[in-house]
């Protein structure tokens, strides 16, 4: 049985668009969103002062299924543009490779870019691909699984797209690690870099 750490090879040869060494990067301190870290085309709505609740966010997503929405721990709604076609293909390939590994390993569940999770800090995030140990997933109720499950995946992959800033993605990766993720890959195909995040 492979451990989660064995999920990270030194090279990502299984992905045709990535052929680079994996450096190791420690989690960064969490910082508020700034103008420099907001992705072009992304809209940020601060709803903290109106008492916005997790149930209201679920309802907002249900009423607007065509929007890509996330909720930060600071009660900011993040409205993201659709992924570009090439990015969508790359995301699909990442999920496909993760799903193949998951079926062989049989110790966890793989999720694609449309799955949302409620992190311990209250943020609702949708990583491009993720994996959760089966015993952690099975501990959730059916009701929890059918919403934005209150769990942070063990393994996270975020793929930088043309509209993403590195600063915003690095902040998000640090947030995952601070909320119990055990391994994270931030893949930047434009700079030919992969940043690996693990708890320090």
Compact description:
Helices cover 26% and strands 23% of the residues.
What does this structure look like?
The protein has 200 residues and is an alpha+beta fold. It has one domain: tt1808, chain A. It is 26% helix and 23% strand. The strands form 3 sheets. It has a 6-stranded mixed β-sheet, sandwiched between helices. A 3-stranded antiparallel β-sheet has the order 2-4-3, with no helix packed on it. Strands 6-7 form a two-stranded antiparallel sheet. Strand 9, helix 5 and strand 10 form a beta-alpha-beta unit. About 12% of the residues have low confidence.
Task: Reconstruct the topology from this structure.
Elements: E1 24-26, E2 43-46, H1 54-63, E3 68-71, E4 76-80, H2 85-105, E5 108-111, E6 117-118, E7 124-125, E8 129-133, H3 134-138, H4 142-145, E9 155-159, H5 166-178, E10 183-188, E11 193-198
Parallel strand pairs: 1-11, 9-10
Antiparallel strand pairs: 2-4, 3-4, 5-8, 6-7, 8-9, 10-11
The CATH homologous superfamily is termed: tt1808, chain A
Whole-angstrom Rg: 16 Å
Oligomeric state as shown: single chain
CATH architecture: Alpha-Beta Complex
Which class do the helix and strand fractions yield?
Answer: alpha+beta
Distance between the termini: 24 Å
Overall spatial form = globular
